[in-house]
Design goal:
- The protein is built from one helix and five strands.
- With 73 residues, it is an alpha+beta fold.
- The strands form two sheets. It has a three-stranded antiparallel sheet. It has a two-stranded antiparallel ribbon with strand order 2-3.
- The radius of gyration is 11 Å and the shape is globular.
- The protein starts with a strand and ends with a strand.
- 23% of the residues are buried.
């Protein structure tokens, strides 16, 4: 199991969703691969929906240009 911290890099206002820099979630996966690019980023989408109530994919932020991924274990 691998744990990742995913953090937004910059402010973005898209499709009625506002993203602020520093919004972060923790994702635990079975894979050691980047959770943003694996399985369509579904664990990341679910985590942002659970914590902040926003759809990060609808906001157009589900990519490595907008998110910083750090593996913590």
């Amino acid at each position: 199991m691998a744990r990742f911290i995913i953090t937004t890099k910059r402010t973005k206002n898209s499709n009625g969703i506002r993203i602020e820099p520093g919004m972060s979630v923790e994702v635990v996966t079975q894979s050691i691969n980047n959770p943003v690019t694996t399985n369509g980023g579904q664990p990341v989408i679910d985590a942002f929906m659970r914590i902040y109530g926003i759809d990060i994919k609808k906001a157009g932020c589900l990519n490595m240009n907008e998110l910083d991924v750090e593996r913590i274990s």
